[in-house]
Amino acid sequence: MTKHMIARKRVTMAESQVDRPRVVESPEPGSIMAVAAHPDNIERWCAGTLAQAIDMGATVRLLLVTSGEVGSSDPHATRERVSAQREREAASAARRLGIAESTFLREPDGAVENTASLRRALVRMIGPSTAKPGAGREPITLGKTSQATHSCVTPKFQHCSGP
User: Fold this and answer.
1) Which residues, in sequence order, are CB contacts of 84 under 8 Å at separation 6+?
2) How would DSSP label each residue in 33-47?
3) Which residues pair with 32 in a beta bridge?
4) How many domains does the chain fold into?
5) Is residue 7 included in any domain, yes or no?
6) First-to-last CA distance in the chain?
């Protein structure tokens, strides 16, 4: 092996998520709020499920914790420009899916933490009497902001009656 070659380790998984994806039942018609850390998370993770629920009569709203302002590889892009672009893209995708409303909390991307103030904001937006647990993506392979969002939202469904 030359000094420019990189040794690669072959990694195998007993059950690949691609080969055996987690399948969830479509939610019943009603009111659904999908919560995620960044614009495009919802579209990547559960757009098909939400579209099916909308087709069955559900009203779907999106709650996005950040505007995704650090989600660009363009070295000349400002955070303001990136967040405005990502919010426009999310709104466009939501309209195409038939989603009734998209809300951005505009927390700082990359700096979100599981704090009392974020939990209060999420409870206010989700609503104390309507929150029921749904399917969620596990945070193991997610970044810091997504992990914090997941840790705020997932266990809070049992405590949504107050801040």
Assistant:
1) 67
2) EEEESSTTHHHHHHH
3) 60
4) 1
5) no
6) 59
From CA 116, how far away is CA 155, in angstroms rounded?
13
Residue 103: name the closest of 27, 30, 42 by CA: 42
CB atoms within 10 A of CB 10: 4
> Looking at residue 40, which CATH number applies to its domain?
3.40.50.10320
pLDDT digits (tens, 9 = 90+) for 99-149: 999 999 999 998 988 888 988 888 888 775 454 555 554 444 556 767 777
Domain range for residue 80? 31-159
The CA distance from 41 to 35, in Å, is: 9
Count CB atoms within 10 A of the CB of residue 117.
10
Domain membership flag for residue 22: no
Give the C-alpha separation, 125 to 90, whole Å.
18
